[in-house]
Amino acid sequence: MFAARLVGLPIFDPQGDQVGKVRDLVVTMRTEGTQPRVLGMVAEVFGRRRIFVPMTRVTNIDSGHVYTTGLLNMRRFEQRSTETLVIGQMLDRTVTITDSGITGTVYDVAMEPARTRDWVLSRVAVREPSKGFRRRGQSHVVEWRDVTGLTRSDDRQGATHLVAALNEMRPADAASILHDLPPERRTAVALALDDERLADVLEELPDDDQVEILKGLDSERAADVLEEMSPDDAADLVRDLPPETAEILLELMEPDEAEDVRRLLSYVEDTAGAMMTPEPVILGPDATIADALAHVRNPELTPALAALVYVCRPPLETPTGKLLGVAHIQRLLREPPSTLVAGALDDSMEWLRPEASIDEVAAHLATYNLVAAPVIDENGRLLGAVTVDDLLDHMLPANWRDRARERGTGPR
User: Exposed site from 59, 135, 246, 326, fewest CB < 10 Å?
Assistant: First the structure.
């Protein structure tokens, strides 16, 4: 059973209820050539907390599921100094195949049950460096005893194969794995992610991790990553940087992107203006229902941003001309596609002002049963939209992601 294929598999209890997902394997390394013993799995349970599932609690593993006895300790997983994470720390290590002298990097590891009924790491998948115009180097799957280099630390360890695994995950899941890596490894992996993917993952990380990773990038790269983030998330991150660093990065960003971030930074923290996104779906009064539906189908929009269409006088970039009204997605779906979206506006809703507090924003969304709401200035121009996920990010305690992980901390 190869480790990379286990990651993400659902874990079920005896009643058939899913209790979590596999995130990594925990092993204890022995001497060179001796198969490491698999102690258990790192599982992510609901609430994004990571726990330890001993192999003695695993009753069966097939191609798509992991089954357990159901008796799981829900305390947070804490890696011990004698333990190694297969996905987080073993992939991309440089090893040598003893028989042939071939050197390559580890891209997967297989485990199997031993005669003692323990699980052990038994095979290693190694890829040679690419040669010439070949896209990939040759691959080899060899016995554990036939490679050297896995039991010692590797200063040359890259991140190619771990990055490939992270790219297959949802950003929140990738962020969870990145958060639990040792600091040096976390930085190496972050450097290897492309700008867009790193931006997606950064938005899901605790504040301290965001700042640490951004400081590990050169200024040009950091500015590029900020450009890929949503403006409200980028503004939140820039607020946490030293003022001189923040100004350098804003100067390096594309002017249009930097302008959005600067505008959000100009508002008092934890107000509607500070937490809004300046890029909702905006259409002119001559747009049709078909135009509106085509815009909200954009897969890059969050569900909350896709729930409302904002109809404004030109210009149609924030700050816009006068806001005429909003159209709800449910209403749009009930109207003929050829009719004007201006005929489906909700004119019963009050708008938010940029200085509105978090409590006022929460009360507004609750009163009108909304997942998003427009923010306007004194002249009725649309400045942006506050979504319910923006609100939650600001209402929850600082570093709430860390606090969620730490509930139930204690020895295994």
Answer: 135
pLDDT tens digit string along 77-129?
Answer: 888 888 899 998 899 999 999 999 999 999 999 999 988 888 999 999 999 98
CB 293 within 8 A of CB 336: no
DSSP for residue 369 = T
Does residue 258 contact residue 251 with C-beta atoms inside 8 Å? yes
Residue 247 to residues 235, 256, 257, 262, 382, Cα–Cα distance (Å): 12, 15, 14, 10, 27
CA distances from 51 to 37, 168, 172, 177, 394 (A): 19, 22, 17, 13, 27
Topology of 3-86 in CATH? SH3 type barrels. (2.30.30)
- Cis upstream peptide for 315 (omega within 30°): yes
Domain boundaries, the chain: 3-86, 160-266, 282-395
CA distances (Å), origin 396, targets 66, 400, 404: 33, 6, 11
Which class is 160-266 in CATH? mainly alpha
Q: What is the DSSP letter of 311?
A: E
Q: Structure pTM?
A: 0.70
Q: What is the pLDDT of residues 306-352, one digit of tens each?
A: 999 999 999 999 999 999 999 999 999 999 999 999 999 997 788 99
- Looking at mean pLDDT, say which of 156-170, 174-188, 339-353 comes out highest: 339-353
- Contacts for 182 with CB less than 8 Å, ≥ 6 apart: 89
124-157 burial code (b ≥16 CB/10 A, e <16): bbbbbeeeeeeeeeeebebebebbebbeeebeeb
